[in-house]
């Protein structure tokens, strides 16, 4: 298979909510009460709600992607239009040869650990719903099947989160984001029954639970103080992913909810062989510990419930059989610095070829596995969705 023949589906990209998202999508009764952009004393423009600083649009990241715009609303000048405008995003996806993508918010403003600090919890929940409506109406509707909506949840309130799952599922959403280590974010852990109503709703509506780091989840393993390199959260995402996966597997969640599907959206795949070896060994050697995975090994649980995505992982692809070739997905991570736009196709194709992957494996890992997991049907015209066709304008 030539790179131009692949149909790429990115399991995890990034976006920035537009400046008008809340003015456009909050109910009329909450007009003027939603998050607003305001400057900090140092001039940085941030989202604020109820007196809580929710962080800057784009989280202050240095994006690697199309050239940034020189003008825009406060806080948005210097951000490329492809970050928040779906038409511009589609142009960038075409240039990179990417057919479809699930996109996570870059701003930490709308994670459970920050919004729950706002005194008015009902207002915070309404803000989450407004964001989700924009994901459906303002983002996904621009290109159904290509821009795949991802909903957030008001995780500080289980009943509100369940209601939001039901609401967004009715709107056609197939995936929801959730903190990968809720107990570190001062929320109950998966080993409790606190999340059972939510997980039951996620299963009942056949949604994917997409785990992602959320503040302050990365802080316990962020490295020594005053070490600017060790404290970069990007460097510890594999460790966080391994910890979150272990937490879920040993918590009994998958015995209680056999239909639960979980996407490990950051951290790559290099940690998986080690973790599976370790869990399987623990089950054999420490029988006295009483770890019960419903008669399954850790490997079987992982391969039946998880999807894990990578940007570039050349060494780990040699171990794809140990991981499970059906549970590996590719991600462009557009437009983060670690992303590979616009040469993603050539880079991932080269890594897979070097690892000896067959054409069916290349097709599955670069697109088919994610499309199946997120319940996104195949393109109506595969030939028009290939890397070559998208780059040539169809």
Automatic annotation (TrEMBL):
This is Amidohydrolase family protein. Residues 85-375 form the Amidohydrolase-related domain. Pfam families: Amidohydro_2. Coiled coil: none annotated. The keyword Transport does not apply. It comes from the Bacteria. It comes from Pseudonocardia ailaonensis. SUPFAM superfamilies: Metallo-dependent hydrolases. Keywords: Lyase.
């Amino acid at each position: 298979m030539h790179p131009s023949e692949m149909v790429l589906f990115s399991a995890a990209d990034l976006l920035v909510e537009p400046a008008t998202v809340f003015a456009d999508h909050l109910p009329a009764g909450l007009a003027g009460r939603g998050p607003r952009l305001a400057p900090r004393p140092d001039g940085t423009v941030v989202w604020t709600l109820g007196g809580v600083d929710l962080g800057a649009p784009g989280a202050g990241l240095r994006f690697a992607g199309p050239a940034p715009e020189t003008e825009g609303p406060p806080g948005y000048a210097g951000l490329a239009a492809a970050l928040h405008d779906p038409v511009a995003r589609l142009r960038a996806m075409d240039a990179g040869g990417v057919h479809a993508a699930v996109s996570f918010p870059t701003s930490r403003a709308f994670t459970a650990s920050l919004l729950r600090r706002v005194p008015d919890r009902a207002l915070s929940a309404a803000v989450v719903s407004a964001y989700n409506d924009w994901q459906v109406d303002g983002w996904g509707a621009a290109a159904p099947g290509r821009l795949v909506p991802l909903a957030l949840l008001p995780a500080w309130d289980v009943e509100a989160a369940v209601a939001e799952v039901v609401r967004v599922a009715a709107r056609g959403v197939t995936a929801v984001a959730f903190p990968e280590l809720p107990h570190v974010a001062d929320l109950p852990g998966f080993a409790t029954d606190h999340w059972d109503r939510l997980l039951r709703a996620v299963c009942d509506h056949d949604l994917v639970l997409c785990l992602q780091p959320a503040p302050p989840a990365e802080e316990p393993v962020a490295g020594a103080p005053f070490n600017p390199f060790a404290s970069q959260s990007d460097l510890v995402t594999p460790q966080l992913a391994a910890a979150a996966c272990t937490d879920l597997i040993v918590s009994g969640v998958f015995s209680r909810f056999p239909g639960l599907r979980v996407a490990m959206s950051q951290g790559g795949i290099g940690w998986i062989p080690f973790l599976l070896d370790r869990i399987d060994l623990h089950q054999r050697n420490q029988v006295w510990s009483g770890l019960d995975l419903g008669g399954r090994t850790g490997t079987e649980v992982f391969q039946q419930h998880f999807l894990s995505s990578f940007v570039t992982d050349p060494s780990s692809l040699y171990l794809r059989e140990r991981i499970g070739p059906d549970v590996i997905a590719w991600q462009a991570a557009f437009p983060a610095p670690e992303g590979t736009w616009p040469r993603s196709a050539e880079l991932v194709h080269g890594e897979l070829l070097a690892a000896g992957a067959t054409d069916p494996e290349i097709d599955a890992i670069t697109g088919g596995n994610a499309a199946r997991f997120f319940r996104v049907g195949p393109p109506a015209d595969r030939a028009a969705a290939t890397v070559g066709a998208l780059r040539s304008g169809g």
